[in-house]
TrEMBL record, chain A:
It comes from Saccharibacillus endophyticus. The keyword Electron transport does not apply. This is ABC transporter ATP-binding protein. Keywords: ATP-binding, Nucleotide-binding, Transport. PANTHER family: ABC TRANSPORTER ATP-BINDING PROTEIN, TAURINE IMPORT ATP-BINDING PROTEIN-RELATED. InterPro entries: AAA+_ATPase (IPR003593), ABC_transporter-like_ATP-bd (IPR003439), ABC_transporter-like_CS (IPR017871), ABC_transporter_ATP-bind (IPR050166), P-loop_NTPase (IPR027417).
Amino acid sequence: MNDREKEAPVKLELSGLRKSFGGKRKPLPVIGGVSLQVRKGEFVSLIGPSGSGKSTLFHLIGGLLKPDSGEIRLDGRVINGERGHIGYMPQQPALFPWRTIEDNVVLDREVNGAPRRESLEEARRWMERAGLAGFEKAYPHTLSGGMQQRAAFVRSLLSPHELMCLDEPFSALDAFTRSEMQAWLLDIWEETRRSVLFVTHHIEEALLLSDTIYVLSGRPSEAMRRIEVPFPRPRREEITETPEFLSLRRELTNLMKEEQRKSTGMPSARQN
Amino acid sequence: MTRSTLNQWFRSAWPPFVAVLLFLTAWEAAVRFFGIEAWILPSPSVIAQEASSSASSLWMHTLSTLQLTLIGFAIGSTFGLLVACALHLVPLLKSALYPLLILSQNVPTIALAPLLMIWFGFGLLPKIIVITLVCFFPVAVSTMDGFAQTDRTMLNYMRMIGAKRTQIFRKLEFPHALPSMFSGLRIAATYSVMGAVIAEWIGAQKGIGYYMILQKSAFRTDRIFAAIIIIVVLSLLLFLLVTLIERLVVRGGRRGASSEGGESR
């Protein structure tokens, strides 16, 4: 991370966030005090064992759920339980099958009341960068999984909200497509420098893409470790072979293994 | 493309076509061979002859029935659609009325027809009410099913980006429910023809149902058969009309089946 970014204002701040499910009699704590920061123009990843409440955390940020305690601040303002402040990319592309690709891509802007012509212009520009030129009028079911995922990413990129929340966006793709998508995302992101909160359980992916990584513990999850990723930008995939990268990867892998071991034997994870 | 679909259509169409042809031949042969009297079972050729010689009167009755069917179908389906939307948008209304709606289907609508005649006379109104009652249910239930089956990831996405309730309904739930709405409309289309005919049985001065009652008392079995064929054709035409509209309205490779069939993966 360079100095410019260090001084960038805080975009999103979570402080002491807690959330339990299952009523008062037998509460099941899922988020047990998560605090983290995303600065403006920073790429932040969250990694953690499966069932560490990553999706729940996103639902809290998106305002679908209200935290039991703690604060979610966006640009310094508390937004607990408020919707419509973020761009979002879900695990499945969730493109609407009855909309053409370009109509899908502008959906977020449409919902937020942006003028259609402007949105379409912007959409065409980014679709070209996503290798989707010529597919503007195609329907999603005619596209490959990777292309659908790129369309979903462009949709979140076009969101009028600066902060993008990406929820394990590549987890449903095969390994090859996945690494292609990572390189592509890296490229696009370094060009746009949006504030990103990225959830993944893929350590290498997190190291390749992020400025900062938070490691979540098993349930009830806390942000137990913050790691600044030292590689300079613009990054290329080659950094994955440097000794520095490998040692960071080993460190993270050990951390994750330990957490995973601690959390097995617990009741099955609440996932959605 | 067109050619191959035509070929495909031809390949799937000829076996049932031949089967019908064989059936008709067997029917014709059996009637002739056993010398069955025409008032019990007329042969297909006799029916065809009779149909063509009384074509003008049949046509008049057909038009009358068609008109009644279309009016009833339009009103019943619209009503069903509105009820589905209302129940979906107001959960309390749904939990109060949905069970009653299901229960009400144990009342045979057709059996209500005589009652409706008593209340509303022999005009158009009671007949339209019968068809409306018959059409309403399949449309309402399948549309509500469509709403309820809205894709969870898409719904979640809409909520995450801050879509309002009306936006979620207009942009997601309604278009998502279209295929299952249309499968309800297809059922309603065939039901509506049946509803019209039965309404005409009970009290009318024209229409295919009225014509059937008239011919029954004259033991004109051949004419009754002609009427049945017309009913079948009417049902099919209405069914095709709904399918055609569906093709125009439902986009993105989802027509026909109401399920997603993994194509969004």
